[in-house]
Design brief:
Blueprint: E1 9-10, H1 11-18, H2 22-30, E2 38-39, E3 45-47, H3 49-63, H4 68-82, H5 84-138
Antiparallel strand pairs: 1-3, 2-3
Helix pairs in contact: 1-2, 3-4, 4-5
Length: about 140
């Protein structure tokens, strides 16, 4: 269930939903990257849908090679974009930092597209070679 129903998610539910390990979710909390919105009376981490959204962003950034520091910084930049007071006061700096991260993401996407093309080309080559050689041996 979500926060809208007055229920927060426990770390196991969040880990399953984000496809992150419980250890990673805890690490992101301890590093200050994604801090759970609430703690239970017993001290257990309780997460909201917004917390899960941040974890999903962190997961995507990690898969694109972002360092923990870069992930934390980009999340702070996105918070500033969402905060109209901060954005108005520091709009130019926020915009510049967004451009830097966008360029990094574009570079990573281009590299991944190239790797995918290489993988598809190699898979096709292997299939053709196996088909020709295996069928030639049976004739």
């Amino acid at each position: 269930m979500s926060e809208a129903h007055g229920v927060h998610m426990q770390i196991g539910q969040v880990a399953a939903r984000t496809e992150l390990s419980i250890r990673t979710v805890r690490h992101y909390d301890e590093a200050g990257l994604v801090i759970p919105s609430v703690r239970s009376a017993g001290g257990f981490r309780l997460y909201t849908d917004a917390d899960v959204d941040r974890l999903m962003l962190a997961r995507k950034m990690k898969s694109l090679g972002f360092t923990l520091s870069e992930m934390k910084d980009l999340l702070a930049v996105l918070d500033a974009v969402d905060d109209t007071k901060t954005c108005a006061a520091h709009g130019e700096m926020v915009e510049q930092r967004l451009r830097v991260y966008r360029a990094k993401i574009d570079e990573n996407a281009a590299r991944l597209r190239s790797q995918l093309a290489d993988a598809e080309e190699l898979a096709g080559w292997l299939s053709r070679r196996a088909e020709v050689n295996l069928h030639a041996g049976r004739s």
